[in-house]
Each structure stands twice: as C-alpha cells, then as structure tokens.
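Figure 2 data, in text form.
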Amino acid sequence: LAADCQSRLAKTVRAGQRKYPPHLVEVEAIQSKTTQIFHKVYFPDDSDQAFEVMSSTRAKDFGQNIAERLGLKTAEGFSLFLKIAEKVISIPDGDFFFDFVRHYTEWFKRTRPQKDGLGIGPNLEVFFMKKLWSNTVVGQDPNADCIFHYHQEVPKLVRGYHPIEVADAASLAALIYRVRFGENKTQFQNIPQLLRELVPSDLVKEQPPDEWKRLIVAAFNKHAGKTRNEAKISFLKVVARFPTFGSAFFEVKQTTETKYPQILLIAINKNGVNFIDPKTKELLAVHPFTKISNWSSGNTYFHMTIGNLVRGSKLLCETTLGYKMDDLLTSYISLMLQTLNRQKNPATSPAKPAGATKPGDTRPGRLSSLTKPKPHTQTTPVPAKSKAAVPKSGSARPKLGAGRMSASGSFKKK
C-alpha cells in the first residue's frame, strides 16, 4: 500500500484535505486490503450503474465521470442527490463525496427517532439528475433527453402542473404510451385504467374514459413508426413550449399576500420564482432572481423577500420542502452569477460549481446587487462541531439556508 499512500498524499496536497474522518465504507475497504470502492448510482429512467469512488473524489468529479460514461455532452446543470428514507438533498459540487455522506448520515442518526429502528446503510441511495435547466435545449443532447429530461418531466405533466388543453394532453399521452409499450397495441384496451399515468390529473374527468381512449389511439396512430427515444424527444419538444418547462414545483400555504390564493403553487425555474394558481394554472407573477433580496427556510417554512429589503414585499410560506426551495434558489443564483462573471471576464473567471447548502445551516440568504459581479467563490462547508451544523435533537428535516449573497457574488457566512 506504500505506493498508493504516496499517491494519495500527493492528491491531498493538490486538491486539499478532507474535513471528516473516513467513512465506514472506506475503513472496511482498507481492512479488506483494497482501495477500490464502487457505489451504485440511480438514474431517472430506472436504470443504475456502479462507479468507482475514491477518497479524494469530489461531487463535481463524480458527476463528470457519470456524464462521460453516459455520453452526455455536458455535466452542467446535473447534480448528485443523496437519499435516506424520505429525505433527498443535493450534494454540493465542491464537497468530497464521502465527507458529505458521513456528515449527512451522522445528522440523520442524531435527528431520527430511535423507535423507527431504520439502519442507515440499506436506506442510503445516490441519484444523478438534472437540477438546473438554465441552458437546456431539447434535441441538443439526445442522451440527456432520453435518460433524464423526459423521465423528470412526465411526472410534472401527469400531476397537472402545466397549463394544457385536452387535444395536447391526448397527443402527449399517446407519446407516453409509445415510450412505455412501443408499437404494442394490445394495451389499448387498458387505457381507461391507465389514464392517471398518461393524462394530467386535473383533466382526467374532462372526458369520459372511452373518449380519452379514442383520442389517445388516434394520436398514437399519427406517430406510427417512431421509436421510443424519438417519442421521448417529441414529448419534450411539446412541453418545452410551456413557460413552466424545467420547473421544480412546490405547493405551499401562504397568508401574507391577499391577492394570491392561500394555497399557492410555486415553480422555480430559469426565469425565477413563479407564482401559479393551482386550480386555474394561471401564471400570477414571475419574480426574476435579480428581484429576490432575501430568503430563508426551516423545517416548516420558506420565507422570501421580493424587491428592496426596506420596501419590498415578504412572502411567508408553510411547507416541509423549504430546504429544497432554498437550495434551488441558491443554486440558480450562483449559476447566474458565474455566467455573468464568465461573460464579463472570460479569461479570468473559470466556471465553478453552483453553491448548495448543507443540513443544519439555517441562516438566511441575501442577494444585494448584480451590477458588478466578481468571480464567485464557494462557501467553505460548516465544520461538524459548529453550532449551525448540528440541528436540534428531534428536528424532522434538515434546515437549510443559502448563506448571504454579497454584491461580489460570493457566499459569506454571518
């Protein structure tokens, strides 16, 4: 092992040192006299592959390796996600993979009630998915469209998040059917029972089941000869026309703005934060990221200030998914700042990974100005012994915050 030790020491000098002791998996590997560790990664199309992960592997490197093996044209916008039980959180690009896994699993052990009796090992899964859709163009990267974009967009359609007419819904349902069954027409008889998996939930009752079947079969016959992958791309080309394409949707309860319904659908996408009426699908407002001056989240809430900190309006939301909204908002703004930096100083502003928050970080975010961006720097992860990094015992969900966004575009801890 001497040669390997020397090699790892050289990598540590170049890339920096780990912030946590070795993960149990690393210890077991070296006890078995091997340094090779393989981790299974799951993808939206229900496939999975095993990838080698080294002690010095950062999340960005891991994602790049995955993108290269899958033949993706770029890894930009993709992210690794760690899932334990019902909790899913994005792994920051700059973090060492095993550091983050150890940090998160230890937090989970401290906050998970003992009566559940769930072991960490069997419940830990790693996913690789599209997170930021800023530069997504359908058809530009067929592998990304077929493995990721299609399978991440179909659930949003069938949950009724997009504004869509019956005719378009039938056409998209036919494409979903073709992806699932190919040219097999024997399943036509089961279409009435499959409507919840083919048609937006809010439109299912707009037509009798037999009429839906007739419309879907007619649309299916128009696409005769299309392969499954061609059907996926055709589906994406239709939904890409929606203003909500590539959005992450959150249904929240708000009481601060009387002009909006109490139950509000919030969509976060490349255009900013969108407010949607969940019943009518009407787009009520779009708030660009440059207009959002402050945000914070906790176990049961997400707060956001729109406009000037003094005269701006504040939206207070009740939701258990505030940590996801917080992370997405932080990451989109970080990516936007990086893009501005590269455009302003292409020779001196290399692309750096979008920031992401960690379990236990509850501080609010702030975006003060984007007029004179400087090169973005990634936040140093909060040490394990920091008070902010240790959630209170019994908390049900990781508390996250975006840090503070300064005029220079760098994250600063208060």
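Caption note: Residues 152 and 325 are 17 Å apart (CA to CA).
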